[in-house]
Amino acid sequence: MANRTIMAAGNWKMNKTPAEASAFVEGLKPLVAGATTEVVVGVPFVALSGVLAAAKGSNVKVAAQNVHWEANGAYTGEISCGMLKEMGVEYVIVGHSERREYFGETNEMINKKARAILNAGMLPIICCGETLTQREQGVTAEHVRYQIKVALLGLSAEEMMKSVIAYEPIWAIGTGKTASDEQAEEVCAIIRQLLVELYGTEVAETTRILYGGSVNAGNAKVLFGMPNIDGGLVGGASLKHDGFTAIVLA
Ligand code: PEP
After folding, report:
1. What domains, with CATH codes, occur in the chain?
2. How far apart are CA 95 and CA 107, in angstroms?
3. Which residues contact 169 (CB under 8 A, 6 or more apart)?
4. Cβ distance 126 to 94 under 8 Å?
5. Is the minimum distance from the CB of 129 to ligand 1 under 6 angstroms?
6. Which residues does 244 contact at the CB level (< 8 Å), separation at least 6?
7. pLDDT by residue (tens digit) across 98-148?
8. Does residue 187's CB lie within 6 angstroms of at least one atom of ligand 1?
9. What does the alpha-carbon distance between residue 18 and residue 15 come to, in Å, rounded to a whole number?
């Protein structure tokens, strides 16, 4: 099996002011300095500048939570990949279920964003996941396979291996309801099998697949120990030093 580096990626959503965000990262740095896990914080756009400065020279990497796929133009309120790249952003989270649900993001838009992110020299963290209804209907595998297949259209094998997929069952996000390690592993294995079909074994074994959905200090170790789970995308628990540090060190 390939040696995939575990990633702990925080998704702060619409939390922390620029000053709070920079101070948080200043405090986080010494706590995670010795981690073997790749540490990423996904911060609001307005906090990127301060967080990038605070994270400089440390092992804390910085992600944006969204981006537009066009290079520039009449898209009021949007941010381009070129803007993020110039600042020093490494990762961009795309296709989060909240973006899909509240802002109408489609698989096609997520595919365009992934393309633009890679073209700009950054890396996408591509989210997918089913609703509770879809799980109860027994269509989780079909739904997630479809989401990921469209999101990855046109990505080369080399681009795929650098990109990250995050499986986040919507019913487990921010609800305190975690998927069991078996449930999370089952879907992450389905995604890896899809990568085998699309790209072959080497790419599938190299690409990281995260689990997200109420990951916390108590469940991270077991989840991250599953064969097809390579870390977590963490919302609520990433907002506090103790919770996030425990996850990073899990
Ligand atoms: C998320 O927003 O990606 C997430 C997984 O949130 P939480 O950890 O709070 O469930």
Report:
1. 7-249 (3.20.20.70)
2. 8
3. 129, 130, 135, 140, 179, 183, 184, 187, 213
4. yes
5. no
6. 8, 10, 28, 234, 237, 238
7. 999 999 999 999 999 999 999 999 999 999 999 999 999 999 999 999 999
8. no
9. 10
